[in-house]
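Slide 14.
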Amino acid sequence: MSAAAPVSVVVPVRDSSDVLDDCLRSLMAQDYPRASYEVIVVDNGSTDASPAIAARHDVRCLGEGRVQTSYAARNAGVRAAAHALIAFTDADCIASPRWLAEAVAGFDDVAVGCVCGPVEGVAPRTWVQHYLARRRLLSQDEALGHRFRPYAETANAVYRRAVFDTIGVFEARWISGGDADLSWRMLEHGAFTLRYQPGAVVYHRHRATVAAMLRQRFRHGQGRALLASRYRSQFTRVNPAAAKDGGRFWQRAHRRGLWKRDVFLESLGVAAFHLGRLLGGGRQK
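Slide 15: predicted structure.
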């Protein structure tokens, strides 16, 4: 595929005024022909200055107010996208200058349905951010090494529109787990493959406070429950160890390399994760 293939970049936003400007600046500064990509910011019910910040940039601004989840916002972006490649990142991310160029280069095979790249942490400032960086939360390596099937974190993923045309869009009412679900449905279909491009780097800002981290881990637990509900029978067929509902395979690999003082945060995070998993559902009504 041509290095200047047209791309639509979708950024879901909700109350992200403290980070959105940096994200959009990084997207405006891509080492990629500006005429070959559009940026679509989908506001998901912000009550802060996020819409005004987005309006200051050369982007398309949309709204998704019916369902307040990032997946519903991404679906709105997919529906509005003008191009055959649709890239996703988040408002709390900063794209490296070569992100689009490196990702697009991965579509040289028509069988590739999704290209993803590394999700690295922005330089941490708080204790919580240092802990999450050491834990490699949201690491693309962890997603690609999942025991069931690999998947692409939507902080850094580019899909062909043909994937959505074939298998459908994200589960709009899932509050977490929808990125894994989309990748797994794509791979289960059999017509598309997932490719990793190490040069397509995106930097992610980890949660800065304990409260924000616990809310995030609670949502991840809800996503775990949703994925287990949908895929447990397949977990058993593909990898019996992945069928256990204890959730340990979502936790264990992150524990290596943690500092002793991280045990407190790790314990809180695991508790929040399992509380979300046990309560399950994870859907916005």
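Speaker note: The longest strand covers residues 7-13.
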